[in-house]
Specification:
With about 325 residues, the chain is an all-alpha fold. The protein has helices spanning about 5-25, 30-65, 85-90, 90-125, 130-140, 145-155, 160-170, 185-195, 195-205, 210-220, 225-250, 255-260, 280-290, 295-315. It contains 14 helices and no strands.
């Protein structure tokens, strides 16, 4: 074998490897992108399937029901178009329930945020057994609503409740706390009792604020209140916005009035005190007491639209007072 032949044999593997690299480099990048897309949808498929089956389908089914007189049992239902919505807007009881719901939201949400923020400021200070206080204050937030309502019913029972027991010590007659006109105050106290959830979120926001800013304000002679108002609140404004939006959504959908009623069952929804007869209580009465699935579905869809509208208003009117460390528009 000549030197030229030996040279060609020894260089042949390198030539083949070079050709493979060229073919690999020329392979379109779309295959890798498609594999990433498939991997994404594979991992996200449980949530997507759950969202479609447990959210989109029930909402679409409720929308269809809102155009019918279906009662959940009888096959003799009919399509009424917008009849349920016309009845809804002319129903004085619906408007009264909506008014009570709005009053409860504008009362309970600010008080809950103020209470949670106040607790967060207290447990954020360098005090002894701080972790224990945080745990104790947060514990009511993890109590199931049914258990919390049962505890409040026993506490404010007219005959054997501890609240009336304290009043009797001072010579005050027992009050019907779970009836009008005091039922609304018991409901508000039950909501504020679970302010530990807001406390934890506010505490996380407080600990994210740079300490150097407060120290600089103190060196400049700013008081504690001025530092809190001019530094803490603006930097905490995204957290407060989040709590406001979620608080409004939760307050208009609360079922605590039913749990605090004398007959805390779906069939006993009509026993709810008038001051606590809110929008969701009206929906439950129409569903389970009267069996008007179509009308109740229309009520729920109106509530859904109202929540979207209220959320949009909150974002619109707070756009100039919410401070972000990074401008959200700059990320687009």
């Amino acid at each position: 074998m000549t030197a030229d032949q030996m040279s060609s044999v020894t260089t042949r593997p390198d030539s083949a490897a070079t050709a493979d690299r060229i073919r690999t480099a020329d392979r379109p990048r779309s295959s890798m992108t498609s594999r990433r897309h498939r991997a994404f949808y594979m991992f996200a498929s449980p949530w997507i399937i759950g969202f479609l089956l447990l959210t989109i389908f029930p909402m679409a089914y409720a929308l269809w029901l809102s155009f019918t007189t279906f009662d959940g049992i009888s096959p003799n239902w009919r399509y009424v178009g917008l009849g349920n919505y016309r009845e809804l807007f002319s129903d004085s009881q619906t408007w009264d329930a909506l008014r009570r719901t709005g009053l409860f939201a504008v009362t309970s949400v600010p008080l809950s945020i103020i209470a949670g923020l106040g607790l967060a400021v207290l447990v954020n200070r360098p005090i002894r057994a701080r972790g224990l206080f945080r745990t104790l204050l947060y514990l009511p937030a993890v109590v199931p609503p049914v258990g919390a309502a049962l505890a409040f019913k026993q506490l404010f029972d007219q005959n054997s409740g501890a609240a009336n027991g304290v009043l009797n010590i001072f010579g005050i007659n027992a009050l019907g706390w779970l009836a009008d006109p005091y039922a609304r105050y018991v409901l508000l106290m039950a909501v504020l009792w679970g302010a530990g959830n807001i406390m934890i979120i506010s505490l996380a926001g407080l600990q994210d604020i740079p300490r150097e800013l407060r120290e600089a304000a103190r060196i400049d002679g700013a008081s504690a209140w001025r530092s809190f108002r001019s530094i803490t609140v603006p930097l905490l404004s995204p957290v407060l916005l989040f709590q406001t939006v979620t608080g409004v959504i939760a307050s208009v959908q609360t079922i605590l009035p039913l749990l605090l009623s004398p007959d805390a069952t779906l069939g006993g929804a009509t026993a709810i005190p008038q001051s606590n007869y809110q929008y969701m209580m009206h929906v439950l009465v129409e569903y389970f007491a009267f069996g008007r699935y179509g009308y109740a579905s229309a009520l729920l869809w109106v509530l859904f639209v109202l929540i979207l509208f209220a959320t949009g208003l909150i974002f619109k009117f707070t756009s100039g007072v919410v401070f972000y460390n990074v401008d959200p528009e700059a990320q687009k």
